[in-house]
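Quick one: examine the sequence and fold tokens given here and explain what the tokens say about the fold. Here goes:
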Amino acid sequence: MNPKEIKYTKSHEWAAVKGNIAVIGISDFASKQLGDIVFVDAPKVGLAVTKGKTFGVIESVKTVSDLYSPFTGKIIKTNDALESDPAKVNEDPCGSGWICEIELSNPTEAKELMDFTAYEKHCAESHH
């Protein structure tokens, strides 16, 4: 996915929304900050998630970080390839390193996310 065509959260998740389905991952910025990713604890299919609440964990050689849901809804798919190859998140965070798909309860929540330009500014101003 083209990083300039997807939306971002302040906690560095990205979302590609089509209708009431969103593909979720972490941003290239976040994957670089984390370093080598060694484990992704993705949410289970069927799990109800709440916007802004933790729905998984990502572990790197440097740290363990929570994953926060950009939306309220239900997990309908996870990227099973990350179980055996979590480094996909480093290699292609906005492509083969996606984490899950959410069926959105309220698609208008997407309007609250940042576009690429706003996200770049957020990253530049953040002291991560």
Remarks:
- The CA atoms of residues 83 and 89 lie 11 Å apart.
- The chain has four helices and nine strands.
- The mean pLDDT is 94.
